[in-house]
Task: structure prediction
Amino acid sequence: MNEQDFAELAAGAALHALSPADQRLFHDALAAHPEWADLVDDDIETVAALEAVTAPEFPPLDLRATLLAQIASTPQHRDVDSDPHSAESSGFSDAPSAAATGQSAESQPRAAAPRRWTRTIFALAACLALVVGIGFGAAALGGYLNRPAAVVALEQIQSAADAQQATVTLEDGGTATAHWSASAGAAVLVTDGVPAAAKGESYELWFVRGETPISAGVFDVEGNTATAALSGDMHAGDIIAVTVEQEGGSPTGKPTSDPFIVIPTA
Result:
């Protein structure tokens, strides 16, 4: 094992991401090369810095999309052990064949597979920590990346230069606030104090365009609050409305009851 292979193992060990077999290789290599201990210490210190708790900073709204794009564009390195024919298919190999060395395939020591993926993930984690600020812990990061789609849509609308909103107070004292952006072509409804729909019923969202209601999906209420993104593109001047329909939405594609939430956007 060379120093680069050991560095991959050291990164995996610091991240607690090694398999039992790699864990044994890591300890055996460290025992054989104590001069590589500095690599281990550096990685442990980096992980400790990532876990340190300081004043948190809220990450940029496009972090999730940027991270997913980075993951999608990162080349995936094939594990040598998982493709025993890779050397043959390429037409050349630096290693002598079993026939040339007089050894059987079973008796030949197996070459260590490169673990560049480990170092890549380690570097990505470190860069991500710099972006979001030390102290934005792993649990908080996981929660941020896994936010509901409606919450993500609301943040995108609120960050738009032409973001608008309007609030109405309902007869039962609850409130409903519509957020929309013409540039984003999107709208989100946030309700507070609105009870959940009765069993067998759903709340259905509508864009009312002129005299035509266009279904924009159904939503549920949990704990008297809800954040629901309207499906489809919003047009300037649309009215956002909500009706009570049978569970799953109107079977006809048209409202079957009068709206109890009506919010003009013009």
About this structure: Strands lie at 164-169, 175-181, 186-192, 201-209, 212-219, 225-229, 239-246, 261-264. Residues 3-76+114-145 form one domain. The radius of gyration is 28 Å.
